[in-house]
């Protein structure tokens, strides 16, 4: 029994180390943060949407619809705004989700007039889109539900007051407001007629999904190669042999980073070709032409994206090399790949579901601090002409990569690379042993 306990104690001592638990703790904290963000979105779904209402029909039916909209939403005062763009800007400034216009002839369409058959009437809805991401269409869904409630209120009124003698078809009485008709999206200063926010969001996502995925895969694969390589070289004692050769330590660092970067770029190109074919076939039927609204990228934009991508790769590899220096062997090196993997996944999922500008300030700082996040956000920023964010990201990536490379070079000149302890402590221990 004692030998078994000794083996158990030995294995626990090797496995239960800070390097094992710290990555798990970091991941738990990041998951909790993402859960908080998603919980905030869930809470928003329970709140009333904020909308602007304009009644151009001034009839009994339009009054019922307006009353229902007021009851189920927070209404913005549009006094002073005369034109459509002015009303849209006022709703946007107030944080509203949509402008709902009850057009002239609304009740006549439902009741039928001038020889026309009674039919469903439409509201002119202008959704206000202020952010990108897959959750950007949540406010519009809430507005659509509110309009559905108004349709039910009008239906109840018609059933109660018109009775069975009405010539209006039952289908019109049951659903007097046509859902999904005359919908538009106000985004980036343009009115996109006949387009809902979910289509805009899907199109932006299809155009910017590949780059974040490429960045994540490069960081995970190439970063894992760098850290594992450092661990294996320490375990096989090949690193000691390399350090005895007449080569500058800075050249060793640069050589390792360059080799890993080349391998990572080759993997990225292979992966990108396959993903481009897949995404083109998947999104060809659902995407819209954003270029007609000024949302497109040119040659300069692609160059900026390439610079941001390259610096992100170098930042990741340099960081992985620094972590690899502290690994004792291949086994411990595998543990260091976990935080790198998660740091690559966090901005990928955050940028997929949320817009950077809509995130809380604390989360914005955390996402900005991760250098891999900037090329993931670059495509949307370039399409929306948000160059300040792109240049800020490139500047930060450059500083981060340079700092990590300098730290790696400095650590390569220290005894900690081989001994796992500082030169000063190692010398003091040696002196104490000599004194004995």
Structure, explained:
This protein has 436 residues and is α/β, with parallel strands linked by helices. The protein folds into three domains: 1-43; 48-203, abc type-2 transporter like domain (abc type-2 transporter like fold), CATH 3.40.1710.10; 209-430, no CATH class. The protein is 67% helix and 7% strand. The protein contains 18 helices and six strands. It has a six-stranded mixed beta sheet with strand order 2-1-3-4-5-6, sandwiched between helices. Helix 3 (60-71) links the parallel strand 1 and strand 2. Helix 9 (210-235) runs antiparallel to helix 13, helix 11 packs antiparallel against helix 16 and helix 15 runs antiparallel to helix 16. It is elongated and about 95 Å long.
- Tell me about the biggest sheet? 6 strands, mixed
Please tell me how large the radius of gyration is: 30 Å
Percent in strands? 5-15%
Succession of helices and strands: HHEHEHEHEHHEEHHHHHHHHHHH
User: How many β strands by DSSP?
Assistant: 6
Q: Report the principal-axis shape.
A: elongated
Work out the helicity level: 55-70%
Spatial strand sequence of the major β-sheet:
2-1-3-4-5-6
N→C terminal distance: 39 Å
Q: What structural class do the secondary elements suggest?
A: alpha/beta
The multimeric state of the shown protein is single chain
Number of domains: 3
Low-confidence stretches: 420-436
Number of helices: 18
